[in-house]
Amino acid sequence: MTPGVQIPLTAAIAAIAGAPAPVALLDTSVLLDVIRAPERSDSRTIPAALRLLNAATARPRGIWTVVTTLVVEEWSENVDTLVAAALNHIRHVDNKRAPLDAALRFFDPAHAVAPSYESRDLPRHLRALSAALLDQSLVVQLDDALELRALGRHRANRPPSARGRNEVDDCSILEHYLELCRVLKGAAYDPSIIFLSSNKTDYCDSGTALHTDLMPEFQQAQLEFGRELTEVWRYIP
Questions:
Q1: Would you kindly state where each structural domain of the chain is located, as residue ranges?
Q2: What is the CA angle 40-196-76, rounded to 5?
Q3: At the top level of CATH, which class does the domain 6-72+133-235 belong to?
Q4: Cα torsion for 145, 2, 186, 30, to the nearest 10°?
Q5: Do the Cβ atoms of 215 and 203 come closer than 8 Å?
Q6: 20 to 30 Å CA-CA from 95: which of 31, 115, 123, 142?
Q7: pLDDT digits (tens, 9 = 90+) for 76-85
Q8: What's the farthest any 2 CA atoms get from each other in the chain?
């Protein structure tokens, strides 16, 4: 099975069942968090992403990562804006550092000014890491029956949807992930399956625990939930 190529849900399930390992179902938010990490003073997400990528590309495989076509579309729609925001943040940090370097030279004429952060091209590296996680994932095509189920979830204002919010795409992503998990666990698939999303507004109560309305579905499907990429660490060496 070639990562990055769109495949039916049934094919993804067959591939995973044929080489059992923990499964990380990725929401768009955790992929984009890699690019947002420096601006958020987040020192944990980048090593978590590298560790996840290494485990997913190892042979034998340490973990499967799965996305849907909607995740790919959302990532493509947002990545350039976030890369530009990361660059602006880095420029802001460089501008704040320059007066300190100038002041230090008054007391230490030999003070060496380090290269600017902008010159090190960090946003390009962040984008490449986020893209690598996406590119090596199984990409699940949208299923008509699950799309109808997602529309019903949205119309009933069930999380991740809510009254006054158009979250049809989030409902679709979740329905495909729940179905994948139900089928695998229904066939006695032993490794853990976790859905990773930092979208606390739609998936969490008070920004911490999984929304109480989602708990029964997750428990029935034996699907675990993580609020950030670092939570995948407990599933990989």
A1: 6-72+133-235
A2: 70
A3: alpha beta
A4: -80
A5: no
A6: 31
A7: 999 999 999 9
A8: 71
